[in-house]
Task: structure prediction
Amino acid sequence: MTNALIVIDIQNDFCPGGALAVPEGDMIVPRINAMMGDFDAVILTQDWHPAGHGSFASSHLGKSPYEVIDMPYGAQVLWPDHCMQGTRGGAFHDDLQTDRADMIIRKGFRRNIDSYSAFFENDHETPTGLEGYLRTRGITDLTLAGLATDFCVHYSAVDAARLGFGVTVRMEESRAIDLDGSLAAAVAAMKATGVRLSGA
Result:
């Protein structure tokens, strides 16, 4: 077993009608389901915020969604309240074949730090445990798909490449927010770390 599919944040709040909807976010679900059988392992990630999370604009007096503030770990985009623990918005999309998953990684559950990457929180130091799981299983090559290309997919892919995994991002099975040029910046960063972009 050497290859794994990592499915990033296919949750209701990131799909049309959700609190932080990614355009066409639900359109990739059938394609991702169809991919799962091609891999030795399938890992799902899930944004899992407590109420009042530090990345929410509502947690900062006078701030609006999509403003950027400085946090102790660096710049932080402030988001609408989304993917809160135990809510419908935080649940996986109904059509996602979650029973195919070998593991589910929940991230962003610490109130004072956000976590875009499947591997590290946004301080780039605190691990989620995913690396150890993959190494223990002997997995060397990762394919990523999901939401959103320019945030959680991007950060996960770059971290995976820096950790020495072979990494491919399936662009056609991912969708972006594209906030002020964030997609172009993400593509450049992924290419710079040796991530292969399939379908780009």
